[in-house]
Amino acid sequence: MSSSNPTRTRDDWARAAAQLTPAQGHFIGGRSVQSRAGATMPCINPANGQLIAQVARGQAEDVDAAVASAQAAWRDGRWRLQSPRQRMAVLQRWADLIEQHAHELALLETLDMGKPISDVLNIDLPEVLRTVRYFAECIDKLDGAVTHTAPEAMHLITHEPLGVVGAITPWNYPMLMAMWKLAPCLAAGNCVVLKPAEQAPLTCTRLAQLFVDAGGPEGVFNLVNGVGAEAGQALALHPDVAKITFTGSTAVGKLLMAYAGQSNLKRVALETGGKSPQIFMPDLYDLDAAVDRAVGGIYDNAGQVCNAGSRLLVHRSLYDAFVERFVARTQQTYRPGDPLDPTTTMGPLASRGHQAGVLKRIALAQAEGAQCVIGGGSTLGEEATFVAPTLIAGATQSMAIVQEEVFGPVATVQAFDTEAQALQMANDSIYGLAASVWTSDLKTAHRMVGALEAGVVWVNCFGDGDMTQPFGGYKQSGNSRDKHIDSLLSYMQTKSAWFNLV
In terms of CB atoms within 10 Å, which of 208, 286, 343, 443 comes out highest? Predict the structure, then answer.
C-alpha cells in the first residue's frame, strides 16, 4: 500500500472528509438496516466535538436478527463448505478492496477516533492488509492427522469451525483490532457478528460492506452497533453464539466470562489490557536508541494502546540522563494537533469522558506526592479531548498511577538498583501483557525474559514483530492470542473420528 501523499494538505483532507457519507445502520444479512426500535447514538469527532453522524443503536432484538442471519449462513454452509481456495480468493479480494478504499477508510477512522491521518495510512491500514492476507494464506495450510492404530481401526483428527462467533472490539485501533479477530475467524470458516466500539464504529461498518463486495456471502459477516451494556451483553448471552472474542477492559472481560456461564458455556477469548514495564539496564548499548523507543512505546496513538510501555524502570546510574533525553525527545516528536493535518503526530483521546478519566488519574498521582516532569493537563481548547504527553516522577509501587491502566499519554519513571529489584517492580502488577528489556548482555536478556510475567517480551526494542508473533498476555491481561496461526486454530474445534474397519 502506498503511503500518504506528502503534497496532500490538511485542507485537501478536510474537503474529502466533507464529501463522506458514513453508513449509519447495522449490517445484517448483507444490507444496511436500522435498529428495530429506531434508536440511534451520536458519533462525535473528538478533535473538535462536532457530530459526524447518528448511527443505529442496537438492542437485544437487533442482536437476535444478526445472530439469526449468521446462523442461517452457518447452517446452509454458504461459507464453510466453500473450498479453501475459494475462501482464500474472497479474503484476498477483500484485502484488495480495502487497499483501494484506503483514503476513505483513513478519513472515517480519523474523524471517528481522532487518530492522525498519517498514522492510519502508514501504520494501521498496512497492518490491516497484512492481517487479512496472512490468514487468507493460512486457509489451505491447515491439516489434520491420522494416528497410529491397530490394523482394524483408523483414527482421524480434524479441525472444524465453531459456528457463529461474536466479536466485541475496541476504539483505539478500530479497524486493526477488529481485523485481528475477523480475519482468522472468517478464514476458519465461521460466521460472525461484530459489535464495534460505540465510540468509533464507522470503519468497521465499511469493512462489512467491502466483504460482501469482495464476494463474501451475505449473512456471513454481520455487524450491530451499540453500547456494551445493551448490544454487547445481548451478544455475550446469546445461546446461538459459540464463542465471544473481546479486546477491552478487564472489568468487561470478567462480565463476559460470567455471561458465558449464564448462557451456553460459549468459549471466551479475552485481551484485557496491560501496564507494560520497560526495563533499562545499566549496560544498555545505546541510551539514545532506548529513549527513542521508550517515547514511542508510551506516546504512540496518544497512549491508547493496550500494551503501552507506561512504566519506565531505569537503573539509577542512568536515571538523570534518561529523563533529560526522554523529555527532549518527547517535546521534539509529539505535538498534538488537528488529526487531518499530515504533520500532526498526536491526536486527541477518543472521547470527552475518557479524557476526564485520564486527567483525574494524573491529578490523583500529584495529590499522592508524584510530580509531572512534563505535561499533566489538557491542550488545544475545550471542545477537543487532547491530553499533553505526560511523564510522572516520584511515584511509588502502591500508587494507582503505577498499578492501574491509564490508557492515555501518561508514563511513570522509577529508579532501581538491582536486576532483582527491577524484576520485582515489573511483575508487581495484575497485568502481564508485554514488557521490554534493554541490555547488551545476552545472558542477562535470557534470564530476564524467563523471569518476566508477560505474554510478549521485547529485547532492545519495543513493539516490534510480525504476523508470526502470538499477541496476548498473562494474568488479568487475558487468555487469548491474536495474530499467528494459533489464532486461526482458536476459532476451530478438534474432532476425533474413529473408524472400525473390521
Answer: 208
